[in-house]
Specification:
It contains 5 helices and 5 strands, in the order αββαβββααα. It is globular and about 40 Å long. β3 and β4 form a beta hairpin. The protein is α+β, with helices and mostly antiparallel strands and about 180 residues long. Strands 1-2-5-4-3 form a 5-stranded mixed beta sheet, with helices on both faces. It has a single domain, classed as Beta Polymerase, domain 2.
Length: about 180
Amino acid sequence: MPGPVVMVEYDPAWPSLYEAEKERVLSVAGQKISTIEHIGSTSVPGLGAKPIIDIMACVRDSGAADECVELLKPIGYTDITSQSGHAEWFYCLAKGPHTVEGLRSIYHSHLVKENSRHFEDYILFRDYLRTHPDVAAKYYKLKKKLAEKHRHDRDAYTESKTTFIRSVLCDVRKKG
């Protein structure tokens, strides 16, 4: 997505924006999707974030993901990052910005293989932050610092968060 990396405080409208978009996604691609989840920082109550609603939709294989890409185009999604053709493929589609009921919103829809490492990592990280507000606060502090440092380089911003995320996932897996 073009534009600067900007952090905002948590918006209590994010869960309802997710629910409404989830219904739109399922209305056009539900037959291909086995699981759909709200992920990313906007899915963690109280956590500030880039104002982008991340949706993770699980499908059985990359063929189903390819079909979803086509099915989601009529509701405004464009393919921004597809990495297919290997065991841990994923797709990221973007929609927005647009305004629904007076709220400006952007959506990223992540298409991942059901029961994949991508799915597991997203859910583990989200759930851990939801139950550990102290870690969520540290994560937000880091994200604000990185957003300032990498304001015009989204890839560098994203890559700079990786060590923190991997550390949390490692700790969660060790605790079992």
